[in-house]
Amino acid sequence: MKKNTSKKITTLDEIIDSKYGKKGAKARDKWEQDFEAFHLGVLLEEARLKLGMTQEELAEKCGTNKSYISRIENNASDIRLSTLMKIIQQGLGGHLKLTLEF
Fold it and tell me: Which of 44, 51, 69, 95 is the most buried (most CB within 10 A)?
C-alpha cells in the first residue's frame, strides 16, 4: 500500500497565525491574552470540582459571591492578582506559582 505524502498537516500555530497574525501582532496579542484568561478560568473550575466544591462554597471560603466565581470561570470578568491569590489560598487551599516567558 502506497502512502500519500503530499498532504501537508497544518499546525495550530499556523492556523492562529493565519487568523490573528504572527506573534507580536495586535490581534494576536489580544487573542493570547483572552486565551490565558479563559485558561485560568478552566484551571480554577477544575480545581474546585476536584475538591468537590460548589461555586457558592468556594465563594464563601474566600469572601466573595457565587456570581463572581461564575464570571471568572466563564471568562466574563477580569480578576485582580490579590483576589486570585485569595481564591487559590483561602478557597482552594493551594499556592499560586507564576512563570514569565519571553
Answer: 69
